[in-house]
Amino acid sequence: MAVRDGAAFDVGVDTSAVAPVRRRRVGGLFIASLIWIALVALGAIFADLLPIPSPTDMDMLGKRALPSAEHWLGNDVLRRDVFSRLI
User: Fold this and answer.
1) Is-contact 41 33, C-beta < 8 A?
2) Of residues 9 and 67, more confidently modeled
3) Pick from 74, 25, 29, 22: nearest CA to 53
4) Is the pLDDT of residue 79 over 90?
5) What b/e readout covers 56-69, taking b as 16+ CB neighbours within 10 angstroms?
6) Are the beta carbons of 63 and 77 closer than 8 angstroms?
7) Residue 76 has pLDDT above 60, yes or no
8) Is 8 helix (H, G, I), strand (E, B) or coil?
9) Cα–Cα distance for residue pair 54/28, rounded to 1 Å
């Protein structure tokens, strides 16, 4: 027991009531989220190098075209590639 400013307090620590520290496991959803964020970031960084059409070019024959090998997510009303605009 120690005395400080006229008050007594116990400096001994009883560790029997303290729970042991448990390591937290990283879940699969957390890792999947990190991978998705990394893919989106890499797609944004290297968007100019990807083999996709320009987001401002218009395909005059493809108004609201469905997804295809040329336009992965199709075209919008103004005939622009949706995937390249998304990137």
Assistant:
1) no
2) 67
3) 74
4) no
5) eeeeeebeebeeee
6) yes
7) yes
8) strand
9) 36
User: pTM for the whole thing?
Assistant: 0.54
Task: Provide the residue type at 16 as one letter.
Answer: S
Query: Partners of 13 in the beta sheet?
Result: none
What type of residue sits at position 41? A
Chain centroid offset of residue 18 CA: 36
- pLDDT tens-digit profile of 20-70? 777 888 889 999 999 999 999 998 898 888 888 888 888 887 777 888 888
What are the distances in angstroms from CA 49 to CA 40, 44, 54, 60, 87?
14, 10, 11, 24, 12
> Which residues are CB-contacts of 85 (< 8 A; sequence separation ≥ 6)?
55, 76
